[in-house]
Amino acid sequence: MSANPSPVVSRLAPTPSGYLHLGNAVNFVLTWLLVRRAHGTLHLRIDDLDRARLRPAYLDNIFRTIEWLGLDYDQGPSGPEDFERSYSQQHRLAEYQQLLDKLRAVPGLLYACRCSRTDILRASHNGLYPGTCRQQHVSFDIPETAWRAHVPLTLRIAFTDLWQGQIEVPLAQNLGDFVVRKKDGTAAYQIGSIADDVRLGTTLIVRGLDLLPSTAAQLWLAAQVPATAAFSTTRFVHHPLLPAANGQKLSKSQQQVLDRGIMGEATTPQPVYAAVARLLELPEPAGQSLAALQEAFAMSGLLPLSGTTGNTQIQKHKPPGTVG
Q1: DSSP structure string for 259-320
Q2: Distant-in-sequence contacts of 267-272, Cβ < 8 A, 24+ apart
Q3: Would 24 be classed as within a structural domain?
Q4: Which of 23-32, 164-173, 238-247, 273-282 bottoms out in mean pLDDT, i.e. has the lowest?
Q5: 52-84 pLDDT tens trace
Q6: Pair 283, 300: CB distance under 8 Å
Q7: Which comes out higher in pLDDT, residue 218 or 315?
């Protein structure tokens, strides 16, 4: 007799750094469809480590957009005040630092970096960090230093994606030696995301294809220490991106002054449902309402979760000079 599949636990994980656009809304609806079909648990987990870009209007927009879309979630803040009081990542900085300290204890995994953004742009031919400080043995304790992960040039992270199939990401070519702790001493996105997902017991992550390198980085980092090793069993759905009207990637960082996101563009959420239906190649009537979309998705059999588990090949970090 086969074991019961693990319960589906997922999350909506927006950043309050701009007004939510069509791509964000499509991701929310797709995540909701998958979790509700599986009778799973859905968290609202807002990533606010980058407080410099947070604006109260952006934070409020997250809650208003979820309500506008007709979605619900099982765990998380009820509104901006509840978020700031009980759910902000600022309350978990010590937890992130503990993970950083565990990673720092892995020989050769992290190193300190004094380079500025200008230094990197001057020295890099592709925008990736060229490893300037890798062999300089900069002290981790010097103020205004970032911590970077030493990514082996040959490292490739392979895993099975529920939408894309078998994936292999050459991490060094995609992210280089990425930052895990910023110069101001706070954890970077990858660390906060790993720690939060492990704490929530997340078993399913739905992301756009642009976040494939981040998924690979998180899988690799999480495998380095026992406290986060369970992250390797996470199932992933990386869906295609929706382009903006000019053909470019939709991005909150590129929003214009008068742009208020998807709620400012559409009078009703129906265009979002229609976009999800097109993405899933469901019949056109499925995009008329959330109820119609949910019914059509449930009957489609697309992206089945039952019987699937994480299938990830992760290389444990080897210090420089290690054979094998």
Answers
A1: ---HHHH-SSSHHHHHHHHHHTT--GGGGG-HHHHHHHHHHH--S--TT----EE-PPP--T
A2: 269/25, 269/68, 269/69, 269/70, 271/22, 272/22, 272/25, 272/26, 272/29, 272/69
A3: yes
A4: 238-247
A5: 999 999 999 999 999 999 999 999 999 999 999
A6: no
A7: 218
pLDDT of residue 308: 60
The letter for the amino acid at 202 is T
Chain mean pLDDT for the chain: 91
CA distance 189 to 294: 32
Say if 119 falls within a structural domain. Answer: no
* C-alpha R_g of the chain: 20
CATH of the domain at 289: 3.40.50.620
Which amino acid is present at 225? V
Please list, in sequence order, all residues whose beta carbon lies within 8 angstroms of the beta carbon of residue 106, skipping any fewer than 6 positions away: 224, 225, 317
Q: How many domains does the chain have?
A: 1
Q: How far apart are the first and last CA of the chain?
A: 39
Least reliable range by pLDDT among 175-184, 247-256, 299-308: 247-256
Under 8 Å between Cβ of 210 and 16? no
The domain in which residue 42 lies consists of 9-105+149-313
Residue closest to 157 by CA, chosen among 171, 146, 143, 145: 171
Residue 232, domain member (yes or no): yes
d(CA 127, CA 176): 9
Q: Measured between alpha carbons, how far is 157 from 169 in angstroms, rounded to an integer? A: 5
CA distance 244 to 21: 10
DSSP 154: T
The answer, yes or no, to whether residue 319 has pLDDT greater than 70, is no
